[in-house]
């Protein structure tokens, strides 16, 4: 299993997710206030893009930390890259 090892990585990803939480709360309020479908759709699209960005950052940081470090053996590197490929295929 691949994990984020860097406290900085965790902090940055959690900050992005906190912003997304705020966006979702805003969307809920928009729906409760019966805003136009177009405005709600615009905010949903922005939120979806923000979630995609978090996913991309997560995968990129995992590749940097686990797959591109110089102290891995070839076999270990292949296993970790295969795990990353599996995550991408499953969730991208």
Automatic annotation (TrEMBL):
Gene Ontology annotations of biological process type: negative regulation of DNA-templated transcription
CDD domains found in the cross-reference section: CsoR-like_DUF156
Positions of transmembrane segments: none
GO molecular function: DNA binding; metal ion binding
Listed Gene3D superfamilies: Metal-sensitive repressor, helix protomer
InterPro entries on file: Metal_Tscrpt_repr, Metal_Tscrpt_repr_sf
Protein name: Transcriptional regulator
Pfam families linked to this entry: Trns_repr_metal (PF02583)
PANTHER family: TRANSCRIPTIONAL REPRESSOR FRMR-RELATED (PTHR33677)
